[in-house]
User: What shape does this take?
Amino acid sequence: MLTIGQLASYAGVTVRTVRHYHQIGLLPEPERDHSGYRSYDTAAVVRLIRIRVLAEAGVPLARVQQLLLAGPDEFAQAVQEIDEGLRADIRRLQRNRELIAKLAAGDHLTLPQTVPDYLDRLRRLGVGEAYIELERDAWVMLAAQDPGSIGPVIAEKNRHLDEDPDMTRLYRLLSSAPGWAPHDPRVVELADLVEHLRIRALQRGELEISSTHQADPVTTLLDAAMTESAPVARQLLTILEQRGWRGWNRIERIPEDRIRRDD
Assistant: This one.
C-alpha cells in the first residue's frame, strides 16, 4: 500500500495533482486507515498513470473520465476524434506561426509579395522609411478592401518607375518632405511636379477624376494619413487646391469659378 506521496511519485505527477483529481472525481479517494492516513493500491497507480497519459496527450480532463470507462471500440473512436482535433490545432498553430513570421518581416504582413518587392525598390531609390511606412499602410488598407486590384496597380507603378524619371524624382521629394518646414520653397516644386504628372496622366487616360461628393471610408483614411504625414502636407494640398486639384488618393477637379486663391 502506498502513501499519497509515493503514489504521485510512481505516476509521475505531484501530490497537488492527485488531490485535484480527487476533487473533480477522476481518481477515487480511498478511506483512511486506523491511523488516519489514506493508502493506495496498484489499481490507483494504474488509473493515475492512465489519467496522466491522457491529459498529456491533450485530452480535456472533462473527457478523461469517459475514456477511462469506455470499451475498446468506444475508446478507439474517441481517440480518433481527439486526434482529428489535435491535427486541426496543429494546422491553426502553423498558420499562426506563418502570420508571426510575416509580422517579423514587417512589409510582408497581410500583403502579397509584389508589394514588399515594390517597397524594396523604393528603398533602393533612396526613399526613406518614414514615407515607405506611409505607403505600406496604404497598401495594407487597399489589400484588405480590394486584394484583386493590387497586382495591376503595382505593375503600373513599376512601369512608371521604369519609364518616367519624374516618378523617381517625385518619390525622392516625398521622402524628404517630412523634414521640411511648412513654407519650404521645395513645397512649390513638389506641387509643380504633382500637377505635371496629374495632367499628363489625365491626358493619357490613366487618371480617374472622382465625380461623386462622397468618398469611401478607406480613401478618406488614406487622404487623412497623407495630410498628417508631415508639416508640409497641408501646404502641398492647399497649393494643389488653389490650382484646381482636390484630394490625394481620391482626386477631384475643381471648377474654375469655385477655386479659392490667396491674394
